[in-house]
Amino acid sequence: MTTQKVQEVLGKIPVPGTNKDLIYLKMVDKIQVEDNKISFELTIAHAMMKTHLQKACTTALQENFGKDVEVAIQFNTEIGSNRMDKKDVLPGVKNIIAVASGKGGVGKSTVSTNLALALAKTGAKVGIMDADIYGPSVPIMLGIRGERPMMENIDGKGRIIPIEVMGLKAMSIGLLVDDKQAIVWRGPMASSALKQFVTDVNWGELDYLVIDLPPGTGDIHLTMVQTIPVTGALIVSTPQEVAMADAKKAIMMFDGPQIKVPILGLVENMAYFTPAELPDNKYYIFGKDGGKTLADQFEISYLGQIPLVQSIREGGDEGKPAVLNDEDKITQEAFTKLAEKVAQCVSIRNANLDPTKIVEMTT
Ligand SMILES: Nc1ncnc2c1ncn2[C@@H]1O[C@H](COP(=O)(O)OP(=O)(O)O)[C@@H](O)[C@H]1O
Ligand SMILES: [Mg+2]
């Protein structure tokens, strides 16, 4: 029994939701072997993986080195980051997740809001930024419509303090400008307003900042990736052909040679309809498996399905997000699983790809 051999065994344990192992993903540290005791540190992206990995590691090590081997794992739920920019924008923010769709009305804001809350439920420090300048809906979904954020003065510069709600820090462009004003902004004006908005908010320390982007694939998206260091993009689509065609454009924009922001994965929203009284019945009213096919085609991770259920719509309209509704287990589980996978994809991205930085356009 040597540290080398322990490493070999751990190098065969897959991480749920990925096809990579613990060693490959650099999750193991400080392996020690003493008499019949093996100890090491295991860094995980969220607490939910703990039980599974505790068991998987113990079983594998005991199978290799004998039943009476004692396995002591110290878990760190430190959420990593791999920013390498100068950190003059959003300096305390570890990971920035841009939620994009191409098409509007597919549930981008719904997914952003419930994802942010589900991540926060795992103990992470999470912010949500509503950057949908033409249709900001996060204030309604979080029940903070009409609130006016406070300002503070830091080194002679006015900074916006995000609103604290349901364990999140939240900010929306809709809380700063009224609807009638924003709607007439076009092109450069919208981009420059957004640029200022994004950098003027004082987020403090965050593990994840979720950004609800406007639909489309235009100037605003380019401005965004050139202003802040986006860790990865999450693509939301419904299974319909028209939505998928637009999702493709969004994938190609982020993935394209000019921008190269990694795609964390694709989530299929309104994947099937489930009536509350018949939770086992699934009706694929917008088509079946479209999201999976699209994800396969572009070789991006498929992060699963969110069902179409009335309570999600109601929760959104009433400012009571579905993921917090304990009576709605199906929805709660769907968003919790999504958050788990997103956290995992972020940590895989940080371990394997080039460091996150602000995009510099090449042409
Ligand atoms: N899975 C779902 N089940 C039921 N209603 C949903 C679901 N996802 C979104 N909705 C509803 O559809 C509408 C559009 O969603 P929204 O998140 O605002 O889309 P987007 O931000 O992409 O424009 C909202 O009324 C929302 O409550
Ligand atoms: Mg929206």
Map the helices and strands.
Elements: H1 3-10, E1 28-34, E2 37-43, H2 50-65, E3 70-76, E4 93-100, H3 108-121, E5 126-130, H4 138-141, E6 151-154, E7 157-160, E8 163-165, E9 168-172, H5 179-183, H6 187-200, E10 206-212, H7 219-227, E11 232-237, H8 241-255, E12 263-273, H9 290-297, E13 302-308, H10 310-318, H11 329-352
Bound molecules: adenosine-5'-diphosphate and magnesium ion.
pLDDT averaged residue by residue: 90
How are strands sequenced across the largest beta sheet? 8-9-5-10-4-11-12-13
- What is the succession of H and E elements? HEEHEEHEHEEEEHHEHEHEHEHH
Query: Helical element count?
Result: 11
Our Rg estimate from Cα atoms comes to 21 Å
Key structural traits:
binds adenosine-5'-diphosphate; 13 strands; eight-stranded mixed beta sheet; single chain; GMP Synthetase, Chain A, domain 3; 363 residues; binds magnesium ion; alpha/beta; Rossmann fold
Detailed description of the structure:
- This protein is α/β, with parallel strands linked by helices and 363 residues long.
- It folds into two domains: 3-76, Fe-S cluster assembly (FSCA) (GMP Synthetase, Chain A, domain 3, 2-Layer Sandwich), CATH 3.30.300.130; 93-352, 3-Layer(aba) Sandwich (Rossmann fold).
- The protein has eleven helices and 13 strands.
- The protein has helices spanning 3-10, 50-65, 108-121, 138-141, 179-183, 187-200, 219-227, 241-255, 290-297, 310-318, 329-352, and strands at residues 28-34, 37-43, 70-76, 93-100, 126-130, 151-154, 157-160, 163-165, 168-172, 206-212, 232-237, 263-273, 302-308.
- It has an eight-stranded mixed beta sheet with strand order 8-9-5-10-4-11-12-13, with helices on both faces. It has a three-stranded mixed beta sheet with strand order 1-2-3, with helices on one face. Strands 6-7 form a two-stranded antiparallel sheet.
- Strand 2, helix 2 and strand 3 (70-76) form a beta-alpha-beta unit.
- Helix 3 (108-121) crosses helix 11 and helix 6 packs parallel to helix 7 (219-227).
- The mean pLDDT is 90.
- Bound molecules: adenosine-5'-diphosphate (ADP) and magnesium ion.
- Magnesium ion binds at residues 108-109, 132, 135, 137.
- Residues 108-109, 132, 135, 137 line the site of magnesium ion.
